């Protein structure tokens, strides 16, 4: 049975990407919120909110995607976390995955890449 | 008569886009943006591109300010600005701008100030060309919308 994905958190310090990622999610019927860095992503979960999916950028000020993912997993957050980044150095990607990602997609995010992430979420 | 004007404008817009694709100024990611536009966000592409313009001009000013400082050595800060610029450029399909950012970042990672200066000149040139062409595109879109009797945001 397919899991219903209804909420997502967009974690990205880039306003253009925030806007595009939210629209991608909106067009698939997924409600989303945005935060501008890893610390805000952690704080929003500490406040009690939870999301089916987290789209996590890698390079962000204050707290990057790797630290934020690690911290969220340590907090027991079991949401699907998909890393999305323009950086594609293999070592960085491996470190990002090891921090607790369920999936990684290179930016720019497209409908096809987001659907691929959602299919993985359904199989989780 | 009105219909003919709308169709002519649409053809002009398609020709301009084809040229920009042929020149490598835009890539298929721009088409992805257009496909996201719908009735609930009829000006989505225009809005996103304007956000991109505002952000890019801040980043270009920051990069120029950094490099014009004779005591400049903060390549890490430069790298942060470049990652931002590269990320948003690739997200809207600004391929040539994005490619120049890659070369710029490479010079920055080698602490190569003269290479960075050359890359900045090229980046400003490519960005200016892109902005002018996209303004042209959106002006045509505005005329087409007016001709078709559709509301469109006034451009600055």
TrEMBL record, chain A:
Keywords: Phosphoprotein. This is Response regulatory domain-containing protein. It comes from the Eukaryota. Gene3D superfamilies: 3.40.50.2300. Residues 7-122 form the Response regulatory domain. PROSITE patterns: RESPONSE_REGULATORY. Signal peptide: none annotated. CDD domains: REC_hyHK_CKI1_RcsC-like (cd17546). One of its GO terms (biological process) is phosphorelay signal transduction system. The modification 4-aspartylphosphate is found at residue 57.
UniProtKB/TrEMBL annotation, chain B:
The keyword ATP-binding does not apply. Pfam families: Hpt (PF01627). InterPro entries: AHP1-5/YPD1, HPT_dom_sf, Sig_transdc_His_kin_Hpt_dom. GO terms for molecular function: histidine phosphotransfer kinase activity; protein histidine kinase binding. Gene3D superfamilies: HPT domain (1.20.120.160). Residues 41-137 form the HPt domain. GO terms for cellular component: cytosol; nucleus. It is found in: Cytoplasm, Cytosol; Nucleus. Keywords: Acetylation, Cytokinin signaling pathway, Cytoplasm, Nucleus, Two-component regulatory system. Signal peptide: none annotated. The keyword Iron does not apply. GO terms for biological process: cytokinin-activated signaling pathway; phosphorelay signal transduction system. Transmembrane segments: none annotated. Histidine-containing phosphotransfer domain (HPt) contains an active histidine that mediates the phosphotransfer. Functions as a two-component phosphorelay mediators between cytokinin sensor histidine kinases and response regulators (B-type ARRs). Plays an important role in propagating cytokinin signal transduction. This is Histidine-containing phosphotransfer protein. It comes from Rubroshorea leprosula.
């Amino acid at each position: 049975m397919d899991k219903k994905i209804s909420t997502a958190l967009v974690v990205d310090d880039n306003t253009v990407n925030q806007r595009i990622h939210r629209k991608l999610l909106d067009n698939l019927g997924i409600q989303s919120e945005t935060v501008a860095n890893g610390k805000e992503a952690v704080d929003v979960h500490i406040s009690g909110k939870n999301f089916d999916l987290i789209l996590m950028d890698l390079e962000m000020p204050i707290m990057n995607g790797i630290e934020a993912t690690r911290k969220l997993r340590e907090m027991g957050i079991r949401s699907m976390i998909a890393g999305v980044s323009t950086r594609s150095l293999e070592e960085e990607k491996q470190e990002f995955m090891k921090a607790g990602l369920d999936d990684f997609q290179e930016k720019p995010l497209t409908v096809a890449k987001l659907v691929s992430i959602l299919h993985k979420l359904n199989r989780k | 008569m009105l219909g003919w004007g709308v169709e002519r404008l649409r053809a002009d817009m398609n020709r301009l886009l084809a040229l920009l694709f042929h020149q490598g100024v835009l890539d298929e990611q721009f088409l992805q943006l257009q496909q996201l536009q719908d009735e609930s966000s009829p000006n989505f592409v225009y809005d996103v591109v304007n956000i991109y313009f505002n952000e890019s001009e801040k980043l270009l000013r920051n990069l120029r300010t950094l490099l014009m400082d004779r005591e400049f050595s903060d390549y890490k800060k430069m790298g942060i600005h470049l990652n931002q610029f590269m990320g948003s450029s690739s997200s809207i399909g600004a391929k040539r701008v994005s490619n120049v950012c890659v070369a710029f970042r490479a010079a920055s990672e080698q602490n190569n100030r003269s290479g960075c200066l050359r890359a900045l000149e090229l980046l400003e040139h490519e960005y200016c060309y892109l902005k002018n062409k996209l303004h042209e595109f959106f002006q045509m879109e505005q005329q087409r919308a007016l001709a078709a009797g559709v509301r469109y945001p006034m451009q600055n």
